[in-house]
Design goal:
This protein is an all-alpha fold. The chain is built from two helices and no strands.
């Protein structure tokens, strides 16, 4: 049970990081203003911010690695 819950959380975090990459590359972001409930909107905003953090962390790790280069 906890294994599948953990896997679901990791999958959600990876999807949020993917959305952060799309935002950085294209400027497109989910329209949170269309979410009617203020609490859910804040939860989604926090979810997307966690993806930004994961994306930034991955960029730093990859930037320090000798296996990746900037072009």
């Amino acid at each position: 049970m906890f294994g599948s819950l953990f896997r679901l959380a990791i999958d959600a975090l990876l999807f949020s990081a993917f959305l952060a990459g799309v935002r950085r590359a294209t400027g497109l972001t989910p329209a949170l203003s269309q979410v009617p409930n203020k609490d859910i909107r804040q939860l989604l905003r926090t979810y997307l911010e966690s993806g930004e953090y994961v994306f930034d962390f991955a960029v730093v790790v990859f930037g320090r690695s000798s296996s990746f280069e900037r072009k």
